[in-house]
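stage 2 :: seqdesign
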């Protein structure tokens, strides 16, 4: 994953989602596994084999490091997915450094992130209005689709009219109009 924090967040969500989909839909008929290696571990190993061409030739230490990185990224993807489920993909673009740190801080629980996103969705109308304005564009940007169908000027005009003032006035500094 590169230096682009927005694409990185989107990739983390995709990693989490793909893992969950595979884990829920795939029946592992590989028979018994060795001690400490369940079916989820086999799925992770298969995914890592697809992602890393050198997987089959890695020593056990390298494999262990790749597994640990995979699980950390999957965990952060789950945390970002909680936010986007309630607020939409635009949150990946306009989240504050404070919110980003909360996602990365594993002391902050997924349940707390869920409560924050539910609170914002239910109580911060200015933020919700901004997110709803940006969500279609954010979706197309993340999915590398054509954005020429969006009226970017109307989004910029919306922001200039001051509709984002409530981002800080609401008492929540979780979102910011500067990424």
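stage 2 :: out
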């Amino acid at each position: 994953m590169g230096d682009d924090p927005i694409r990185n967040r989107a990739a983390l969500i995709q990693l989490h989602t793909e893992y969950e989909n595979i884990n829920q839909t795939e029946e592992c008929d590989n028979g018994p596994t060795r001690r400490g290696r369940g079916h989820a571990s086999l799925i992770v190993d298969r995914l890592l084999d697809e992602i890393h061409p050198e997987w089959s030739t890695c020593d056990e230490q390298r494999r262990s490091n790749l597994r640990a990185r995979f699980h950390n990224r999957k965990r952060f993807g789950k945390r970002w997915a909680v936010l986007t489920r309630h607020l939409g993909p635009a949150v990946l673009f306009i989240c504050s450094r404070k919110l980003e740190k909360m996602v990365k801080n594993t002391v902050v629980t997924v349940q707390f992130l869920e409560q924050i996103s539910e609170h914002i969705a239910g109580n911060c109308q200015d933020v919700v209005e901004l997110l709803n304005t940006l969500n279609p564009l954010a979706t197309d940007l993340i999915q590398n689709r054509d954005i020429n169908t969006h009226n970017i000027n109307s989004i910029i005009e919306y922001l200039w009219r001051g509709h984002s003032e409530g981002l800080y006035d609401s008492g929540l500094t979780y979102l910011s109009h500067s990424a």
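stage 3 :: structure notes
- The mean pLDDT is 84.
- DSSP finds nine helices and no strands in the chain.
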